[in-house]
User: Fold these one by one.
Assistant:
Number 1:
Amino acid sequence: MKRTAFFISDGTGITAETLGQSLLAQFENITFTKLTKPYIDTPEKARAMVQQINAAAESDGIRPVIFDTLVNQEIRDILAKSNGFMIDIFSSFLAPLEHEFQSRSSYSVGKSHSISHNANYMQRIEAVNFALDNDDGARTRYYDKADLILIGVSRCGKTPTCLYMAMQFGIRAANYPLTEEDMENLQLTAALKKHKHKLFGLTIDPDRLAAIRNERKPNSRYSSFAQCEFEVREVEKMLRRENINFIDSTHFSVEEISAKILVEMGVERKFK
Amino acid sequence: MKRTAFFISDGTGITAETLGQSLLAQFENITFTKLTKPYIDTPEKARAMVQQINAAAESDGIRPVIFDTLVNQEIRDILAKSNGFMIDIFSSFLAPLEHEFQSRSSYSVGKSHSISHNANYMQRIEAVNFALDNDDGARTRYYDKADLILIGVSRCGKTPTCLYMAMQFGIRAANYPLTEEDMENLQLTAALKKHKHKLFGLTIDPDRLAAIRNERKPNSRYSSFAQCEFEVREVEKMLRRENINFIDSTHFSVEEISAKILVEMGVERKFK
């Protein structure tokens, strides 16, 4: 079975999309065509949306499902006339919350919110810069300023994880690739040893690693299965010996890896 | 008024946190202490959560609000006994969706989902690598592979925006800093001209720009208000003359800027 799902918002659409994706993931036997439609903030755009929804209903032969976080009543009224099945996210929860808080919400008075985190802007940019400047072992002298330091073989997912943690949580995450030299020395370099309590390991399935490395340097020793298998085995051995927590990135998304690391390290998010 | 809010999940907590934050933002007159608690996936962790919730209730003098996306019934039952006001996100929406889809959800059968996007993993890593390799005008010869190219003065927010678009949407975004040389030439460099349809401009308030630059190079000509003001004015003039769409990043979050760019450029997300 195939159906179209729309995530519609007068803002970025992040809330509608995040919740909608989570809910649809609970229905594994249905294939959804998912469309995120941010900044639907005028009656004209809303009417164009209705046309698109109705066209999808016609071509699918079944009505689409719509997840919306629209605040403006006029725009919601226009969309309500489409041939879609509408899940109105805000209206479902704001009534009980207004009752609990004994306070009217901006939604009730038709005022839209942006999600801009201006108070956090500098902190966030700073964390992203920290991740970039301290990527791939580029320098180790600022490790005293790091919240954590990810270690693992080249291309096991350290950089995206550090960038994600910087962007989403304002965490200053450095990363250091363990090379053959590190493995032969059978110990951590001085810079890492000094900050051992900040270290967290990432490991990966050798097959997956070889596939990723082949994208960068096809048919090299670097990307051979034998080399990948050797490096992963040696690094895991070192992590165990040094008693450093680590997780296998193979079957997790960057979001999952990041959330798990923060829990295991006991590092608090910087954004509240 | 001050209250504690918990975002509790047996997964990353992203859905509970995203929706919870959006809902709480509608109550501007209340100050919330927000705590995200991912991977609450055992009865032991759930019981520890209950203690933390009850402690917050006691110290605040008012019960906390809890947004949860827990799938396991046993764990939800434990949390339900806390002194918190519980907003059970999944249960609110899955019943109507099950009815609409004529299908039972995994939730109903107590099966948890990870949000891992393994099908998209390679595409995502690739997009992040593209953003890193083509950051800050580092190279221009791969612009034919770019989905879009952000241009603007140094430190106006191009890099975080490109990284966010790569991470969240799999978009290959390059960025090129417009320098005094570009401004004096009064025209776009050949590499940019060739890909003019991919260009999008970012601009920024000169005051904010000076503050950001001062973090990097304090008390330099580069970070002086006069220099920032000159560069911003010249770049905006150039963008208007060349008829390139642009937005002012000053009052928007990276999420908002990214969503706006995709809408204005008509670029589709690569993840569905």
Number 2:
Amino acid sequence: MYRTHNCGELRKENIGQEVTLSGWVQKSRDKGFMMWTDLRDRYGITQLIFSEEKSSQELFEKARTLGREFVIKITGTVIERTSKNDKIPTGDIEIEVSALEVLNAAKLPPFTIDDDTDGGDDLRMKYRYLDLRRRPVQNNLIFRSNLALETRKYLAGENFIEVETPFLIKSTPEGARDFVVPSRMNPGQFYALPQSPQTFKQILMVAGMDKYFQIVKCFRDEDLRADRQPEFTQIDCEMAFVTQEEILNTFEGLTKYLFKSTIGADLPDFPRMTYDDAMRRYGSDKPDVRFGMEFTELNDLAQNKGFVVFDSAELVVGICVPGQAENYSNKDIKKLTEWMQRPQIGAKGLVNVKCNADGTFKSSVDKFYSQEDLKGWADKMGAEAGDLLLILSGETDKTRKQLNELRLEMGRKLGLMKANDFKPLWVVDFPLLEWDEDAQRFFAMHHPFTSPKKEDVQRMLNGDHETMKNLRADAYDLVINGSEIGGGSIRIHDRVLQERNFKLLGFTDEEAEDQFGFLMGAFEYGAPPHGGIAFGFDRLCSVMNGQNSIRDFIAFPKNNQGRDVMIDAPSAIAGEQLKELQIQLNVQESGGEK
Amino acid sequence: MYRTHNCGELRKENIGQEVTLSGWVQKSRDKGFMMWTDLRDRYGITQLIFSEEKSSQELFEKARTLGREFVIKITGTVIERTSKNDKIPTGDIEIEVSALEVLNAAKLPPFTIDDDTDGGDDLRMKYRYLDLRRRPVQNNLIFRSNLALETRKYLAGENFIEVETPFLIKSTPEGARDFVVPSRMNPGQFYALPQSPQTFKQILMVAGMDKYFQIVKCFRDEDLRADRQPEFTQIDCEMAFVTQEEILNTFEGLTKYLFKSTIGADLPDFPRMTYDDAMRRYGSDKPDVRFGMEFTELNDLAQNKGFVVFDSAELVVGICVPGQAENYSNKDIKKLTEWMQRPQIGAKGLVNVKCNADGTFKSSVDKFYSQEDLKGWADKMGAEAGDLLLILSGETDKTRKQLNELRLEMGRKLGLMKANDFKPLWVVDFPLLEWDEDAQRFFAMHHPFTSPKKEDVQRMLNGDHETMKNLRADAYDLVINGSEIGGGSIRIHDRVLQERNFKLLGFTDEEAEDQFGFLMGAFEYGAPPHGGIAFGFDRLCSVMNGQNSIRDFIAFPKNNQGRDVMIDAPSAIAGEQLKELQIQLNVQESGGEK
């Protein structure tokens, strides 16, 4: 037996007991005649004491050879500490060691195993097994495990059945790129890894499972931007015989339960905002409503006063930054303007108005606007003396996006995005289709299985091109603190409507039949109305912990090149494997630098 | 709103209420002036009543158009049934329908949606969404969901953390064949889908996670024999600082809990049997101990009496089939002998001895053995009058395997394998290595990470070739009713020993480093002693329900060609996809028939 207790559980009550512990040497303090060693495991830290006086010579010598991260097993007696440590639960006691066994020695770790490590990202990922020994990362994984369990308990309590859907499915090029898997038994053919279990969960509704969920890995072969992973986890859910209202209520219930049961947070009822409102008021379909600075449109007040930039703009829109008029020098404004002009954001310029304490206004466009004009703006924006107005103009969609970035930046700068202030929000009434000017085709705003609103069904079946741009869907996103946590929709459950949607999305009849014939076929054998939602589980973990990166909640994440640097994957495979799969490499020589 | 209640919950107490239900039309009985319709959902069946007298003409006409599997929504009043049905929980009531809406019509299903269906396997799989509407299949999936939840609850209660390990990993050709995934971002390189999370769970132990589990999909690209799936599910577990004894106790606890909490079965303490004993007594490392007929070795009594077949055999061994002497005519014995001689089993012959009621013996080898000889056999085998002795001879391993088949066949024939009689068993002390005469190399009996028993470590490091054949491992299998439900081992946690094992298994140093360098590296930074187990989750589901096929517990299984016939996967992919992946097909023309 390696232990009678773990390193986190001994207390005053155990004083006098003989115990056996195993764990890692966190650190030792050698005072010459006495030595203290912190023994660590997942559960905590227990202090060991070796003394020249009480320990045998041999034991004391052996203790001195222990290095950081050695794995040891000790036996000893629990004694009361003379100087207690009230920072750790075991701080009242220590172990007077009578026997010590080194279970495994350890080389010096390439970085320190501590809450704040000196290891860079690359090093930490290469030695992930050492990085995972650090308490914050370990706590993240424990949190994740707990969150998954609470999710399952709650949904099971609501009569949801967890059904495992297959990972080896069929490639459907619509949407993101699939990872594919060559089939040895069916040469020339490929499986695809699921981007989501979407069609399977719909099939389960047709199959009468009524309420389905799954916490499941999904796969997308996309170019990895920051904080995206080729494999990620969803809480995937579907219900039959439901309205949008019932879905929102069910998953608002789940979300509240998860916040309460894992971090003790009471969430308020979730407000709902239409997609149009969100875009108009925040320039984003995932507004962070922890702080204000809502958009105010100024076309009516700012146009036709001779300022050609505004006059020629489709939209003039601004935010009011409270109390910052005096804090922003011309130099600061210039810096902010340059930040907005970076290609990532692409604003042409930034107009500012300072609402001075004396009731006057100072603006970068004083030339064109009177004090009265500026007062009009300030009034409309609800500004008070001391506030700073920041105004953009241009094409509506672009300008809103830019102002959204500016608003978030100001929120960050002013410390308005507090980590443990949770502001959930349902964004509803998304458009069904999005017209892509470049591709000259429609894309599904949510996905090709999303239903138009009931009142839009006839217009969708019979309407003209322009009508299609204005169809609304029963689609919804759950947004918390500016992160999209979940999204879903009521689905089409009628073959004719689904065919129409595929056609609008540019599928030929053959393509639709080839890729989704089974689903449309299923719709003919008694498909119930149904809908669902999927939560980004990695993102949910990070948002609940007020952290930005999902990577810290994934045990073995991949880097931006999609590589696992610990195991060094992907890698070349044996020629024999390729031969069995009846494929061959066709890798382009990359001439020179890349 | 589609429903106020589901189709399984209305009772006498609800009489008089107006309710709305939605579901599928199971069947209708039209009596001309009255019509009854069974409305079905996951929760049950509720009887609807339409009558010429009470319903409007329009409603009554509409009801008559309803076909099987139509999806409808009705509103009506709960009334007491005149003729009650005590076979269903809703049998006291029916619904007098006042409003009917057809939510979706249905084509006539290609097979009947009933407990016993007329659909063949192929048809059921193609229309899996209809097959899954059948109560027994639905119950299987509900059972599976429940079993997974109970597993998680129990293990979480034991401080296990569920950690998701990656699906896109590295190909390691040892063991079964990997499914591979070409990496677009790393041209010419491939990920592999995990055959199990083995190395990752060991890494998690090195990382100090202490107790890990995961219910996880695993993948093996093997030729699919009956009841094997290319993707299957494991309950995968690992613990640090544990002995084999602690692992067995922990997972015996889990198994008992699962049987109790899901099917109400109390399992006895699990007996333990060494691998050697299992092979000697049952000719199998997964003996079905629901019934006796243990092997008796007869070399000492049956050899050197002039019967050359026995004399030249390495092993003479038999079973005693109780009470079957008179039931087996010469013709029956001949049939049984032929069954044993089929190539799948390959016995050369089958010797029988009938223990007659009068105390005499009748045998197929009377010529060589006296009555006294045969009595000696019978005594050693514990036979009584009326018993039938069946005896095989030949090379030890082969003969044991053959007699195992015979024993199981007799158990089946005599009805001794009762579905709800659960007889668990730990088989322990497996050999570490298995010598393959054809390949002229060792294979790992469990897997390359399994530790030899402590007392065998030095022999493994220093011993000669013959010594390697006799090493025992801390490896164990959980067997229930002749099915291997789980298997595991204590792992190697020392670099030197792991290197030695790879060398014995025929790895070059480079291959070992290339494939498992990260693991051996991890062992140098303070790896704790650890071990674990994995349960075949699909198999556990079927065994607990006394069923033979795992397919019925998988929502969307693949057929023997690895195909999902519902979605028609795998399939060809677009040339554009191949180009992006920088691979090309190299499919052999198959000349003529295949």
Number 3:
Amino acid sequence: MRKYTPANFTDVRLTGAFWRERLDTVLAHTVPSQYRQLEAHDILSSLKLPKPVPELTIPRNAHNFTTQIFWDSDVGKWIEAASYALHHRRDAGIEAKIDAIVNDLEKAQLPDGYLNCWYIEREPENRWTNLRDNHELYNAGHLLEGAVAYFRATGRRKFLDVMERYVDHIAATFGTGPGQKRGYPGHQEIELALIKLYQLTGDSKRLDLAAYFINERGQSPHYFTEEARRREGDRFLQGTQEYNQSHKPVREQDKVVGHAVRAFYMYTAMADLAAELDDAALKHACETLWKDVTETRMYITGGFGPSASNEGFTKDYDLPNATAYAETCASVAMVFWAQRMLNIDLEGKYADMLEQALYNNCMAGLSRDGEHYFYDNPLESDGSHQRWEWHPCPCCTMNVARFIASVSGYFYSTSADALIVHLYGGTEARFEIAGTAVKLKETSNYPWSGNIDIRIDPSKATEFSLKLRIPAWAKDAKVAVNGQRLPVNGNVQRGYLDIRRVWSRGDRVELDLPMPIERIYAHPEVRDDFGKTALMRGPLVYCIEQADNTDTSIPLVVLPRNAMLSPVERPDLFDGIVAIEAKAQQIKTRDWAGVLYRNTPSATADIALVAIPYFLWANRGPNAMRVWIDEM
Amino acid sequence: MRKYTPANFTDVRLTGAFWRERLDTVLAHTVPSQYRQLEAHDILSSLKLPKPVPELTIPRNAHNFTTQIFWDSDVGKWIEAASYALHHRRDAGIEAKIDAIVNDLEKAQLPDGYLNCWYIEREPENRWTNLRDNHELYNAGHLLEGAVAYFRATGRRKFLDVMERYVDHIAATFGTGPGQKRGYPGHQEIELALIKLYQLTGDSKRLDLAAYFINERGQSPHYFTEEARRREGDRFLQGTQEYNQSHKPVREQDKVVGHAVRAFYMYTAMADLAAELDDAALKHACETLWKDVTETRMYITGGFGPSASNEGFTKDYDLPNATAYAETCASVAMVFWAQRMLNIDLEGKYADMLEQALYNNCMAGLSRDGEHYFYDNPLESDGSHQRWEWHPCPCCTMNVARFIASVSGYFYSTSADALIVHLYGGTEARFEIAGTAVKLKETSNYPWSGNIDIRIDPSKATEFSLKLRIPAWAKDAKVAVNGQRLPVNGNVQRGYLDIRRVWSRGDRVELDLPMPIERIYAHPEVRDDFGKTALMRGPLVYCIEQADNTDTSIPLVVLPRNAMLSPVERPDLFDGIVAIEAKAQQIKTRDWAGVLYRNTPSATADIALVAIPYFLWANRGPNAMRVWIDEM
């Protein structure tokens, strides 16, 4: 059983300007436009079976592989995002669209429960023969998440029933019993979906199946090797077992390796199982992997996986900026994992990481207009890196949509006698703590300001803990309850300040998290950040973008170590942000004309520099950008 | 006609310790060991035709391509290197080996003169059908250079006769006449070889053929496109016309693009033709391309072509250090080109470049033991970049061998009434100037010292110019003739000091080229060198290598801008070198344990730093190395 339970996102209403804007954009623009894209790219029609088999829309690559095999997952993820949107605002039009999709899926489903539109249409004889590359279980997982979300949003259970039948088929197919395949997914995902299904229905068989997939992974003989041997003309996609984290049994894994999204989806499920089953070895593995990734393989933006070639991890401290892959999905997956770790232990480092990934790499994945996306999130660009409307592998689009549509679910947790605040921002929420209904209203302009006002309204006076996260970046935080200052320093335990008292209607907590601008430095073995600094304020990583510095050559900016950095309110930018202004320097190039090498160092000239939050970059056309700025 | 003619390398004897050691190594170790490698890798036996067709030794790659098609060129280049060695020291054993190879080639040659062992053996029906990729004309060029060199060394002309017949066949096949193919090489090389043949025999048809290949290149309709259309199942290797510099007629080319060796071999031939034919448009193109490459696309080490993917050029200022390709062959080819430019105009910048490429990137290509090689020459390594004994594409091995075996040919030029000194080092040489035999003896310990003593011995007192190159790096050079100081500052014209007088037996010139250690900076748009400095002394670029700095982490070294740099004689290293010592700093990492990002900059600790010449790196096992060092 989980020690801490995240608040249901439907119990938390976002009222602050920052998240309200993002959520409204996703509801009004992202979700509807994604439906249009799914339609325009023949992804929806691919569910209509049987029909004459159409040509591939996405041609096979050199490895004979097409990302078209993922399409079921894209539909599942869109239904999930749309369902979260319905919680905010019911919409008969959207529901009719989902119901139509569900009808298609129901029709496509085979009598034995199998449901994968690619295989049913194109190679029915090959189902379950290439778990390593062909994403059947991954697709099933995303459809299942969609079904769970749609049921929660509407109470309509046809999709859930379809998926329960499919899960029954999967449970019959895979396992350690006689005649069963001892397989597991090449792309982890279904594990965490099964746990969601368990948490919805209470059917422990679902938890058992998730645990089977996790436990079986990386055992000997190696399933993917055996499976490849059975295939003729093996489609070889990715050579290493590290790529999909099947190189060792999961409890023995201590380095974060391979494809980042696969890794983090797996760690999410591992943490879920550790909490649900009280599995100390799984918990320990999660903690070891957490330490590894956060100490050696993470971008300051909460991005993960530097390399495009494996969409994942390489070696310690290898964090190039201009070529950073840092897939949006990987940061979303990190938020999932961090939340699951918070279900086990209340450790501020998990929430700090969650917040860092959320406000920086995750948010960067969605444009201001809600209809353009980043798949990879470099920390430096010459202006050629641009947002796209759609992608041959559109995983990140629906991931960022479902994430923002449910973001309020990451703000609070509860335990038997505690209300825990992880994230800040204007909200109105309700909980049940120690048998009492508790309302909470937070007023704040977070993340632009750390001045936070929380009103607590229990239905009756009740003793419980209010645990406020004090971010690691917040030095000298101040707290007052009903105007009475509480000592903070020394009382923060593992990132949380525990205010235990009898709470009564109208109690007011004031929290001040000072947000000075900080210069951040990277470990010296991060070669690409050597001699450089990044600017943060609160949870936000800043960047310098050409659009705000029109007369400046972004690559030639140098920030003197003693340069004053000032936060500046800019109501003219993106509905109001806090920018950073600095008196900086720019390397002069005029006296280098016709010279490539010389024996005198470059001269510099004064410039006024403006930095904006990283997540907002690339919303004003092609623009050079940097997060890490050379110091002098 | 060439305005300036390089001295024949056979007229210049190297007596200084620096070059003596390299030459002796090449004669005693490199040339013989390369023969053994050619034998061991079945390259020599590939010339023995006809025989049952053996399996490929080098399997085809994904593009259906095998570097085995280059083998004729490897043999040609080895014969060229061995022939240069024979000039220094006749060797009946080597000559017998070459004669045996020549017999094989003569037997392989078809009645019509065609001679390409790959095509004759494996696909005779396909000859001259894929000039773009398959190197027939390139192979012919290297065999021809070998034949010219062997004839010059021994006077034996069988190989030359074989190649003259082949050249006749090529001249009949290609051209603008009726029935001729309007083709040209996919890999330039034969052009410069044909000019060598012309310079040996005086047969102007050879010059005409070279000019045809140069003039036809890049004309419309595009030959390679037409040729590819005629092939079934085209083997597509490299997509762009820039790759092989056929994107435009050569006189219109103004950016150095594509495969670096192809480019520089072509520019060499262009400069040759510009000199021989007094072609102003070709000369202008060479000057434009020279300016482009030296101002935007050159490593400080005289390396060229940053990218492995095209073995060549990318974009301006793109000069990454750790992944620098900087092929040894490209630097050797730059020396060729620079020498040809010096035949047209006496410009110190050409000789400066020649010297910079020679003492750094070229020399780095050959190990101290003379039997290990670098193909690519990065300017930074974590220790994983190691020398190899042989390579699937062994072009660089024989290129560096033939180059060092003939290096004395780059020291001097003559014109009607001038003796020109480009390079320094202990030599004994003879020339004919203004009808007088002139002997020259230089005593120096160059490049370790700039103190140079030159004795001039004309057979009779004669007026002529002695033009001494004053390198751009040599500030405050001093010159005395027979003890009498001459003014230098203000009298150096385009890099050369002209001492015109009646020279008599025993005249003595003392030249002092001061060699302070210089910190070199790169243009600020070279991202990888931003905030960094490289150390040079005289023509030598220095590097820091792990072997000399055992307690230091090479990537963490920082050089304060005011750190004293001292030249130190180190008789214990590589038979005696001048190293550089500095009091530097190293970033501390101990206080970073378990931390990836923090808000305080790194601390540093004092270290004693030793730098050695770049060309000597990687001779002491796996070793981290850097040329560009962070400044602070």
